[in-house]
C-alpha cells in the first residue's frame, strides 16, 4: 500500500517537475524574460489594438482618450457611435479624398513584422552620421525596392527625402526654376495637362515666388517656341484617369517633374523601369501610410539634387527621423517577400473595388467609367486587368478617389 | 523507511508545485504572457539598446547595419572605432551646432515611460477625426504643459504644428506678410536684431517671395515712420546671448514673431507667462528631440492662424503623425512630474557645463563670457544662476553652441 502510494507520489512529482521545466523553458527560450523597459510600451500598444470598435473603426495610441483612459474609437465612413456599431443610412460617398486605408488589413495581418518600438533617446540629434538629414540605410532600402520591383532606375541617381511627395513638389519646382543655366529674369512657367492633381496649382501659386508662376494647361505652351523656361508636371500613372502619361514639352527650356506615386504594381501594370530626370514617389501610395508624410525624389542632375537638398534643409531641416524609421521598417516588410505579398493583396483589393464600382456605375445614366484594358506587367510577369488607385468618370467633371477610401462597404452611389 | 521516502517525495512535490504556481503567477500577473505581435519589435529595440558602444556612442534601430545584422555604433564627438572606444586627441570643439544631446541621459533613465510602440497600421489616413492634420490630444497636452510651467498664455490662443520651429518660421513670415489688412503692394520687410539666428535670413531669402524680403538689422528701421509692413524676429531668450529680448518696432505696420524655443526653466528663469501675438516653441529645445522635427506656434489672431494652417497644408499636409505620436509620449513624461524631473536634470547639466566653460575660458586672453546674473524663476520658485542653452563670447564674432553639444568630455578650447 505504502509502496503504491510512494510510486503514485513519484509519478505526480515527475509530472510536476516536467511542468516546471516546461514553464522555465517557455520563460527563457521564448525570450520574453529579457524584456524590461520596452514592456510597458508593448503592452500599451496591444491594449489599444485590442479595442474592437465593432470592426468599423480603429483606436489609436494618440487618439482622444475617454475618462477611463481608454482611447476613443475613430469610425470608418458611414459608421458612428462609441464603438462604431451604428450604420449611418443615407451616407454619401466621399468622392474627393484618397485615403489609402485599403491597405490597413494588410498591415494588421503583418502586425509583428511591421511594428516599431521607438526608444526615448532615438535620434535626438539633427543629423545622421554622414552629416545629412537622410538615413543611409533607408536610402539603400529604397534603391533595393526599385530594383526589385523594376519600376524605376536608381543606379547613378540621387535621392532626396520629403514630407510626402507634397513637400518635394515645391522643392522640385524651386530647383528647376532657380537653375543657373538660364539667365532669364522672367519667372519659369509651371504647367500641367488637364485633368491634373489640384495641388500642383494651389501649391505653386501659394508660394508666390519670383522664380516661377503657374500657367495652367500644358497645351497652351505647345506652339510657343521662345516661351522661356517651362516646368511641366507629368503624373504617370495619371490621377485621375490612370494613363501612363509622358512629357509633352521638349527642348532646352523645358523640364518635367514626373509624379510617379501610383507607379507600383498594385495600381498599374509596370511595362519598364521609369528613367525620367526627376521622379517623385511616396510612402502613402506604396504602403498606404499617408499620415507618416514620407516621400522621395529620384534625380539625375547633380545641381537639381543639391538645390532640392538645400530646399529640404531651409524649409524644415529634413524629414522627421521618426517617419524615416517607420518607412524603413515598412519597406523592409515589403522587401521580405520581394513585394509579392503587398502587391498581390493591393492588386486584388483594388481590382475587386474597381469591378464593384464598374457594376454600380453601369446602372447609372449620368456616369460611366473609362474603359481600361488588361496590360502585361513585368513585375507580376503576366497580363493583368485594371486596378487604378483613382477613378475618373468620362464626364470629366467628377473625379472619384473612392476606390482608395476607408470604407467598410461601398455605399450606394446613383 | 517507505513512509520516510514517501514523506520526502511529498515535500519535494509540494516544493515543485510551489515553483509551478510561482512561475504561472509570474507569467500571468506580470502581464508578459499577453504580448503577441508587439514582442518582436520590443526585443529588437532592447537588443539595439544593449549595444554598449563603450559609453561614447549610440546604436540606432535605423542606423547602418553590419554584415552580422548588428547596427553600427555612432560615436560621440572625439571618439571613434567600431565600438567608439578610441579617444581622438587634438579633437576640436564644434562651435557651430546645437544638438541637444545633453538630455539623452535623462531619456535613457526614463526608458520605460518614454518608449512608444508604433503599430503597422498607425494613422494611415491623411487627417485626424476632426479633419485636421493636428492631434487634438497632443494640442491639449501642449496647452497643459504651458499652463503647468507658466511660460506662455495659451487660453483663447490658436495652436499650429510644424516640422520643428524651422517650418513655422516661414509659415509665420508668410502669414504676417500676406495679411490683407494692408494693401501695400511692396513686400514686407523682415528684420532681426544682431546677433540673430542665421536661419531667419537664409530661409527668408531662400523662398524669394513676392510678399517679403529680408532687410537685416532691426535698428535700421527704428527711425522710418512710413516704412511699410515690417516683420521683426525676436528671439527670447536670445540665441546666442541669452537675453530676454522684446520687440523693438511698434505701430500699426509692425508685427513680431517671438522665437521662444529657449523659454523653458532649464535654460532661463521664467519671470512670467509670455503673451506675445505669435510665439514659436520646439520639441528640440524642450525635450531634446531635434531629430523628430516637431514644433508649435501659439497665435492670438485668427486670420494669422488660418494662414499658417494653410501654409502647413500646402507645403507638407501637416506634420508626420509619427512625430506627433512621439511628441505626445515625451510631453506626457514631462507632465508626469509637472516638469520637475526634466527641468531639474536639464538645469543642473547646463549649469555645470556653463561653469566648466566659464572656468576654461577664464584662462584665455582672447575670449571671455558675458556675465549673467542669477534671477528669480516663477517655475522653480527660487533664484537660480545662469544655464543658457547657447553661449556667446563678448568678442561678438564667435558664438558657441557647445553647451548643448553631444560631448563625452569638454575638449580643450584655448
3D architecture notes:
The structure is a homodimer of 414-residue chains. Chain A has helices spanning 2-29, 39-49, 104-109, 111-114, 136-149, 164-177, 198-206, 283-286, 302-316, 321-336, 340-362; strands at 57-59, 73-75, 79-80, 86-87, 116-118, 158-162, 188-192, 212-217, 230-235, 254-259, 278-282, 295-299, 375-377, 382-384, 391-392, 399-400. With 414 residues, the first copy, chain A, is α/β, with parallel strands linked by helices. Chain A has 3 domains: 2-33; 35-91, Laminin (Ribbon), CATH 2.10.25; 136-336, Aspartate Aminotransferase, domain 2, CATH 3.40.640.10. In chain A, the strands form 5 sheets. A 7-stranded mixed beta sheet of chain A has the order 6-12-11-10-9-7-8. The longest helix of chain A has 28 residues, at 2-29. Chain A is globular. The interface between A and B is large, with 114 and 113 residues. Strand 5 (116-118) of chain A pairs antiparallel with strand 5 (116-118) of chain B, so a sheet runs across the interface. Chains A, B: InterPro entries: Alliinase_C, Alliinase_N_sf, EGF_alliinase, Ethylene_sulfur-biosynth, PyrdxlP-dep_Trfase, PyrdxlP-dep_Trfase_major, PyrdxlP-dep_Trfase_small. Chains A, B: The chain crosses the membrane at residues 6-29. Chains A, B: Belongs to the alliinase family. Chains A, B: This is Alliinase C-terminal domain-containing protein.
Amino acid at each position: 500500500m505504502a509502496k503504491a502510494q510512494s510510486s503514485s507520489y513519484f509519478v505526480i512529482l515527475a509530472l510536476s517537475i516536467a511542468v516546471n521545466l516546461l514553464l522555465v523553458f517557455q520563460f527563457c527560450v521564448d525570450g520574453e524574460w529579457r524584456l524590461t523597459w520596452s514592456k510597458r510600451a508593448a503592452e500599451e500598444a496591444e491594449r489599444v489594438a485590442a479595442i474592437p470598435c465593432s470592426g468599423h473603426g480603429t483606436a489609436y495610441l494618440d487618439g482622444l482618450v475617454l475618462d477611463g483612459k481608454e482611447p476613443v474609437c475613430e469610425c470608418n465612413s458611414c459608421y458612428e457611435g462609441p464603438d462604431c456599431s451604428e450604420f449611418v443610412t443615407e451616407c454619401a460617398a466621399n468622392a474627393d479624398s484618397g485615403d489609402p486605408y485599403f491597405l490597413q488589413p494588410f498591415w494588421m495581418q503583418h502586425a509583428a513584422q511591421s511594428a516599431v518600438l521607438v526608444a526615448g533617446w532615438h535620434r535626438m540629434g539633427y543629423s545622421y552620421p554622414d552629416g545629412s538629414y537622410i538615413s543611409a540605410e533607408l536610402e539603400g532600402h529604397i534603391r533595393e525596392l526599385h530594383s526589385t520591383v523594376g519600376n524605376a532606375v536608381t543606379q547613378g541617381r540621387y535621392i532626396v527625402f520629403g514630407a510626402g511627395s507634397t513637400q518635394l513638389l515645391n522643392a522640385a519646382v524651386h530647383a528647376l526654376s532657380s537653375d543657373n543655366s538660364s539667365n532669364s529674369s522672367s519667372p519659369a512657367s509651371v504647367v500641367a495637362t488637364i485633368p491634373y492633381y489640384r495641388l500642383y496649382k494651389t501649391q505653386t501659386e501659394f508660394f508666390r515666388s519670383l522664380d516661377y508662376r503657374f500657367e495652367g494647361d500644358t497645351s497652351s505652351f505647345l506652339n510657343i517656341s521662345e516661351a522661356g523656361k517651362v516646368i511641366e508636371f507629368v503624373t504617370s500613372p495619371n490621377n485621375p484617369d490612370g494613363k501612363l502619361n509622358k512629357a509633352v514639352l521638349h527642348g532646352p527650356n523645358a523640364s518635367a517633374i514626373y509624379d510617379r506615386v501610383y507607379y507600383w504594381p498594385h495600381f498599374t501594370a509596370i511595362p519598364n523601369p521609369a528613367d525620367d530626370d526627376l521622379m517623385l514617389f511616396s510612402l502613402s501610395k506604396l504602403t498606404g501610410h499617408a499620415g507618416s508624410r514620407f516621400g522621395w525624389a529620384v534625380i539625375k542632375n547633380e545641381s537639381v539634387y543639391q538645390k532640392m537638398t538645400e530646399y529640404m534643409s531651409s524649409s524644415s531641416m529634413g524629414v522627421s527621423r521618426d517617419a524615416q524609421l517607420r518607412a524603413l521598417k515598412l519597406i523592409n516588410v515589403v522587401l521580405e517577400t520581394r513585394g509579392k505579398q503587398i502587391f498581390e493583396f493591393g492588386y486584388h483589393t483594388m481590382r475587386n473595388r474597381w469591378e464593384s464600382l464598374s457594376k454600380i456605375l453601369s446602372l447609372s445614366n449620368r456616369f460611366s467609367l473609362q474603359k481600361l484594358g488588361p496590360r502585361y506587367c513585368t513585375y507580376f510577369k503576366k497580363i493583368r486587368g485594371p486596378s487604378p488607385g483613382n477613378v475618373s468618370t468620362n464626364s470629366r467633371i467628377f473625379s472619384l478617389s473612392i476606390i482608395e477610401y476607408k470604407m467598410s462597404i461601398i455605399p450606394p452611389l446613383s
